[in-house]
Amino acid sequence: MPDFTGHSLDARARRLLRTLIAQYLADGEPVGSRTLARSSGLEVSPATIRNIMADLEEAGLVASPHTSAGRVPTPRGLRLFVDSLIELQPLPEEEMARLKRELPPPPATVRDLLGNASSLLSAVTHFAGVVTLPRQADFPLRHIDFVPLGEARVLVILVFSDNQVQNRIVQLPHAADARELEQAANYINMHLAGLRLDDIRAHLLRELREAGSELNRLLANAMELAAASFAPQGQGEDVLVSGQTNLMAYAELADLERLRELFEAFQKKNELLQLMDVCAKAPGVRLFIGEESGFAALDGCSVVTASYGAQGRLLGAIGVIGPTRMAYERVIPVVQATAGLLSDALNRAATAQ
């Protein structure tokens, strides 16, 4: 079996494969040799085209549906096309201006901003938009308050830099009075506001080792509260999905059983979150075609994502889920640009704090 890559294909095979895929992505129909001969502009005989297509089929890059003599690209062919046969261009200025115009300014919370970005991406591409929410602990702490509840329980009120407020009830080894709680909160707010929870814990531990006796006592109280208040509360990650019903418009996804599996995956979110988490850990664009995602519910779909972040930290990923028959040369730059605009908005929000 021939083992073609984008670079090992000769010029004619590359041109024919590129023409076939472009034609298929445009209309969704199998492409015949006559259409290829007419559209590719190659001065070769139909027999030569058939021979080349037979080699491409043997290599697993194209396939012949049973109902047609024409051919369609396989996921492997689409992967080769995306990796080496298309030339991605930056988003045109007018489209970038549209994204900037339609992405609302930072609302009350980062969650709202991320939801808006996912909805915008869905509206622009007509696919399902997806975005992962960062862990709340990834955002700096703005303010903390401790409220005694009795029986050694304390209500911890955490206000983060993204305006999210999180309440936690913690159980201490022994009761703490209101004055001790106020002293601990004042110390953290004065010296440690602006740091992330993990950094605050590390800072308190370090100072506790170095401090003198009186400060040591205060720090011991603060550290005891911090250990309980800032302990990991699970990953706290989630994924928002927008425009799922857009996928019902695509014939290749219109099978009811197929849609049921896909919508169940959107509802349960576990597998989708795992996939998006992989995308969020590496900068740049990630693309999964068909079974490459590793999740059966997404077979027949392509997932295009790009990571976003703020202040030099990766926080999550945003992208789209659609049929494998999508205009990759347009969708990839749109996803990449939206992730960049989202990062810019988060950086501006962080700077304004």
Automatic annotation (TrEMBL):
- Locate the coiled-coil region(s) and give their ranges: 201-228
Stretches assigned to the Heat-inducible transcription repressor HrcA C-terminal domain:
112-332
Sorted keywords for this record are: Coiled coil, Repressor, Stress response, Transcription, Transcription regulation
A molecular-function term among this protein's GO annotations: DNA binding
| InterPro entries the UniProt entry points to | GAF-like_dom_sf, HrcA, HrcA_C, WH-like_DNA-bd_sf, WH_DNA-bd_sf, WHTH_transcript_rep_HrcA_IDD
Mind telling me which Pfam families this protein's record contains?
Answer: HrcA
GO biological process: one example: negative regulation of DNA-templated transcription
In terms of PANTHER family, this protein maps to: HEAT-INDUCIBLE TRANSCRIPTION REPRESSOR HRCA
Family, according to the entry, reads as follows: Belongs to the HrcA family.
Q: Its function? A: Negative regulator of class I heat shock genes (grpE-dnaK-dnaJ and groELS operons). Prevents heat-shock induction of these operons.
* Name by which UniProt lists this protein: Heat-inducible transcription repressor HrcA
